[in-house]
Amino acid sequence: MIFYDSPNPAPNPRRVRIFAAEKGIDLPSETISIVAGEQKTPAYLAINPRGQTPALRLDDGSVLTESVAICRYLEALYPDAPLFGATPAEIGAIEMWIRRVELVLMEPISKIWLHTHPFTARLPIQRFPDYGEANRPRAMDAFAMCDAALGQSPWLAGEAFSVADILLLTAVDFAAFIGVPFPDDLGHLRSWRQRMSARPSATA
Ligand SMILES: N[C@@H](CCC(=O)N[C@@H](CS)C(=O)NCC(=O)O)C(=O)O
Questions:
Q1: What CATH code is assigned to 2-77?
Q2: Which ligand 1 atom sits closest to the C-alpha of 10?
Q3: Separation of 114 CA from ligand 1 center, angstroms?
Q4: pLDDT in the model for residue 139
Q5: Which atom of ligand 1 is nearest to the CA of 123?
Q6: Where are the domains of the chain?
Q7: Which member of 9, 89, 118, 138 has the lowest number of beta carbons within 10 Å of its beta carbon?
Q8: Is residue 141 within 8 Å of residue 75, measured between CB atoms?
Q9: pTM, whole model, 2 decimals?
C-alpha cells in the first residue's frame, strides 16, 4: 500500500493521517507537494486523474481516492475500534455528520479559499471574490450547527468519538489557517477543539 499524502494545511490528506493514527495503522507514504504543483504532473495524474490528494494505492495496484472512501477502506481492514459506528443508530448519525461537514461546512470554506485567498490567486481558475465572501456567513452558520450538536453530546455524532470528529477538526483547523476562524462565543465547539487537539493523532 502507498498513501499519497500532502502536508498541512491540506485538510483532506490530514483526515486520513489522523484516522490511521487513531487506528494505529502505519501507512507507507509518498509526499505530493501541492505548493510545487506535483498533484498535476503526468506521473501523479496517472495515479489520480483528478489531480488531487489523498490517494491510496492498494497492493493489487488499484487506487482509491476521496479521503472518506480511503478511511472506510481502512476501517474495513482494521475494524477495531470502529470509527464509522457500531450500531445502526451510530452508523446513521456518523454518516449524517460526514455529509454535513463536507457539504454544509467545508463547501463554503473551500469557496472562500478558492475565490478570496491570496494563495489561490495564482491558480489558473476564474475567481469571483464577491461570491467567495458571500460564503462567509454560510460557514458561520455551519460552525453554529456543529456547536449546537456539541452542546448535546461530547462528540459530533453522539457519545462516541468518530470519523466525523476527524473531518470536523481538519475543517476547523484549515478554516482558521485561511482566516476563517469560528466565532469565540461558540463555546462547545471551542472546548471540543481543545479535547480533539490534545489527542496524539491531532499532530498528524
Ligand atoms: N473530495 C476529495 C477532495 C480532495 C482535495 O480537494 N484535495 C486537495 C488537498 S486538501 C488538493 O489536492 N488540492 C489541490 C488541487 O485541487 O489541485 C477528498 O476528500 O479526498
A1: 3.40.30.10
A2: 10
A3: 12
A4: 98
A5: 17
A6: 2-77, 88-203
A7: 118
A8: no
A9: 0.98
